[in-house]
């Protein structure tokens, strides 16, 4: 979090002015984190910085040239008002009560020039101002709290109509003939869609998913601050301390009424805004009925952390086991999982066993690949993917040429539990019987290095090389006691 302090300057210091405006933008981009003391202190600083007239200008006076007034008076007001808007949407009743008055006045001040830029840049400035407010959840705010400041809401609705007319007339030109078609179409798409986080029967493969058949799946996601309960054939979430796993969709505004009707919006569920782990502002449906006597559950689906320590540490390689296809040119083909959703989350972890290279993999030029030495304590770099158990079972089978591990064979036949993280089991796949030590090929090493760089950006190239060299046991005095490998056994090594 940026430690830049906001101060009103008596005379222009452009480096300082741009530094403060950049810090405001960065804070807008951050996820609202009400449990983070520093984040809350920064929010309080924003509130204290507001002038009596509702503005957040960076100069003590607005009696300056018009272009500078847009840059250092109006834009900071838009940014800080958008911060308050975003926080208001995601906050509880106490937060909203705290923000309502300053947000009202910020919205009021934001109407002073109809969001126009300076002079011939009027349309460009309006687009930039809209994008600032879009980051704060403009469409959701107008949906849910448009009555807070009718003057601001009327202005936004008029601009929305203006931009729709640009598209209808196919006229996207500014005063100097500059083309704003891309920007205007993006704004129009924004106003005509909503992001919705679903966590139960609306998810892909579930009974009510047909309500989202025309919507775009943006990927797996999660939200913090709720607990889930089993109501029978559907789940319910209420405010709590847990993380809820689900999927994020982009939904046409026209489809929202049917989803509201399905959820019993206003009676059984309440549609509200939350900020997902991807810092996306999205709707979700919060249960309004009594949860007494209901079973509390971690998620509507059975999720698990799959921990990789070899080539699957590289995210794009791992995705071929979920989505299907081959990794880069010449790689083995992987069949897609029934559920092709990306992992909900990816984390680095420390595995309490050493990694070593063994066997002769046909997928990697007949050279060694990664295994874990589970016979003793050690240390290996690991990447944990939060996926459904169904996806994990698919990955485990693909590891072994389509056959689920059964503890017999020479490849990845053993599923080992590494404990729990966030209430979900962590598992990895290896052979508990030491395999014959073999050097890896350069292509395999390069894939490992890419995976390590992707996940441990703080590691130097020397540290990466040293780690991988420590995994090569072919020059050590220790010897594997495992039996010889059946040359006819297929391997599709992902580790």
Describe the structure.
By secondary structure, the protein is α+β, with helices and mostly antiparallel strands. It contains 13 helices and 15 strands. It has helices at 14-29, 37-49, 66-90, 93-109, 122-135, 138-145, 150-169, 181-191, 256-263, 315-323, 389-399, 442-455, 461-470; strands spanning 193-198, 216-230, 235-252, 269-275, 281-287, 295-297, 303-308, 325-326, 333-334, 345-351, 354-361, 367-373, 380-388, 414-421, 424-430. The strands form five sheets. A five-stranded mixed sheet has the order 10-13-7-15-14. A four-stranded antiparallel sheet has the order 1-3-2-6. The protein has a two-stranded antiparallel sheet with strand order 4-5. A hairpin with a 5-residue loop joins strand 11 (354-361) and strand 12. The longest helix has 25 residues, at 66-90. The radius of gyration is 27 Å and the shape is globular. The model is unreliable at 477-490 (pLDDT under 50).
Short key terms for the protein model shown above:
495 residues, 15 strands, globular, 5-stranded mixed β-sheet
> What is the tally of helical segments?
13
Q: Based on Cα principal axes, name the global outline.
A: globular
Helix content: 25-40%
Query: Which H/E pattern describes the elements?
Result: HHHHHHHHEEEHEEEEHEEEEEEHEEHH
Count of DSSP E strands? 15
Rounded average pLDDT:
91
Radius of gyration equals 27 Å
Q: Separation of termini?
A: 36 Å
Q: What's the topology here?
A:
Blueprint: H1 14-29, H2 37-49, H3 66-90, H4 93-109, H5 122-135, H6 138-145, H7 150-169, H8 181-191, E1 193-198, E2 216-230, E3 235-252, H9 256-263, E4 269-275, E5 281-287, E6 295-297, E7 303-308, H10 315-323, E8 325-326, E9 333-334, E10 345-351, E11 354-361, E12 367-373, E13 380-388, H11 389-399, E14 414-421, E15 424-430, H12 442-455, H13 461-470
Parallel strand pairs: 7-15
Antiparallel strand pairs: 1-3, 2-3, 2-6, 4-5, 7-13, 8-9, 10-13, 11-12, 14-15
Helix pairs in contact: 1-3, 3-4, 3-5, 5-8, 7-8
